Amino acid sequence: MYQNLILVGRLGRDPEMRYMPNGDPVTSFSMATDRAYTGKDGQPVRETTWWRVSVFGKQAETVNQYLSKGKMVLVEGRLRADPKTGGPQTYTRQDGTVGASFEVIANTIRFLSPKSEGTGATEGEVSVEGAGGHEENIPF
Predict the structure, then answer these.
(1) Mean pLDDT throughout 112-124?
(2) Are 31 and 69 in contact (CB under 8 A)?
(3) Which helix or strand (DSSP H or E) is residue 55 part of?
(4) Gap between the Cα atoms of 62 and 27, Å rounded
(5) Is 30 part of a structural domain of the chain?
(6) H/E element holding 64?
């Protein structure tokens, strides 16, 4: 069995790094992906989906150091289901409506924002490989 998810979007907030009990770093951030289409009534519709992304190990440190809110990023990884429901994690918003949150465990993160946005890399230049990748080839 195999599962692979590829997302391209923008960070909704600055990454937050913490450490697991064994000392391994973990960085989490939210990102939004958009889908635009024309509805049945002929009006343009824009649909936004929010994702929670978790990154582990050396790439967690790199992501925390170089990414910030608004930066464009490509995330490749696997979808993590809520162990209780087998679907997305659900929650109740302050207004009483129910929301859902999808979590992605990242294997690969690519920084896509151009130099002019302050990442220090041109579009597609920086790639941070996760598990099974070649972390010794990171250009930092």
Answers:
(1) 56
(2) no
(3) strand 44-56
(4) 9
(5) yes
(6) helix 58-66
Q: Would you say residue 139 has pLDDT above 70?
A: no
Strand-pair partners of 52:
30, 103
Which amino acid is it at 124? G
Report the alpha-carbon distance of residue 85 to residue 48 in Å, rounded.
23
Phi, psi values for residue 54, rounded to 5°: -120, 135
Q: How many domains does the chain have?
A: 1
Report the predicted TM-score, pTM, of the whole model to 2 decimal places: 0.74
Q: Is 140 a member of any domain? A: no
Kindly indicate the confidence band of residue 35, based on its pLDDT and cuts at 50, 70 and 90.
Answer: very high
Residues spanned by the domain of 24: 5-131
Q: Is residue 18 part of a domain?
A: yes
